[in-house]
Hints:
By secondary structure, the protein is an all-beta fold.
Amino acid sequence: MFVDAELVRGGKTIAITLPVSAVSYAPFGDSVFIVEDVKDPKSGKTYRGVRQQFVKLGGSRGDQVAVLTGLKAGEEIVTSGVFKLRPGAAVVVNNSVQPGNNPKPNPENS
Length: 110
């Protein structure tokens, strides 16, 4: 018997990583909420609100998940409480509480 085997190693993939808590997982597609200036259609005034953006996810490691498509570097993303949001919802940015974002977490009682 003779076997001709070829091992293919994956190349580097550029991806944006986010905390897992920033992703809203749903059967119709995974999404994140981007914080941006939103214009109120009734009054014409702008306010800080959110826009839902569907994303394609890659692998995850620890508390982080890779976003392959759907985001640009530098966009401001909601990382906590995404299940409470709807597109266009007004938000106040409070960075005093940060979600876990450790690529090698060490859980208690492990």
